[in-house]
């Protein structure tokens, strides 16, 4: 099980830009959770207590082999009902995107894109990372242009960095990688389709 120290309030300055854990999948999950938690509190999208409770839920779910994003867990901890989940997760994602530079754009048509099976076959490790981050690769034009997206812009940005590093390490080229955001319905649909959840 992933161990994570209790999240503590951070200075009033902006949280660090999302960075890749550049390690094993457990480190990448922890990096994503920490950075998302910091960003939620910094943007005043959630209280420290809400985030701490949600982190426990996410860690347990991940340990049980069921990926869960912190945005969705926070929305549930805050008491939002299922019928409002799409709007609440979108609002939380908007708040996080507003403090990121560059701000990942929302792509409303991503749910209609075809899963890049050949990319996932070639980069099985990236597929596993995408699954735990719930950030599907929405397009892959060979290894030159690749896009990933999630309801959580921090998760998409972390996966984008992992993709850049992996492709560069294997082929010595730096691909153009886009990190974008998805609405809740597209995100849950693509997560089921890409990761068999």
Written overview of the protein:
With about 200 residues, this protein is mostly helical. About 55% of the residues lie in helices and about 10% in strands. The protein has helices at about 25-40, 50-65, 70-75, 85-100, 115-120, 125-135, 155-170, 185-195; strands at about 135-140, 145-150, 175-180. A 3-stranded mixed β-sheet has the order 1-2-3, with helices on one face. Helix 7 (about 155-170) links the parallel strand 2 (about 145-150) and strand 3. The chain starts with about 25 loop residues before the first helix and ends with a helix.
- Spans where pLDDT lies below 50 across 5 or more residues: 1-13
The helix tally amounts to: 8
Mean pLDDT, nearest integer?
88
CATH-defined fold name of the largest domain = GMP Synthetase, Chain A, domain 3
What would you call the structural class? mainly alpha
- Estimate the strand proportion: 5-15%
Distance between the termini: 20 Å
Q: H/E element string?
A: HHHHHHEEHEH
Query: What is the number of beta strands?
Result: 3
Kindly provide the name of the CATH class of the largest domain.
Answer: Alpha Beta
Radius of gyration: 16 Å
Largest sheet: 3 strands, mixed
**Integer count of domains:** 2
* Helical fraction: 40-55%
- What global shape is seen? globular
By CATH, the architecture of the largest domain is named 2-Layer Sandwich
How are strands sequenced across the largest beta sheet? Answer: 1-2-3
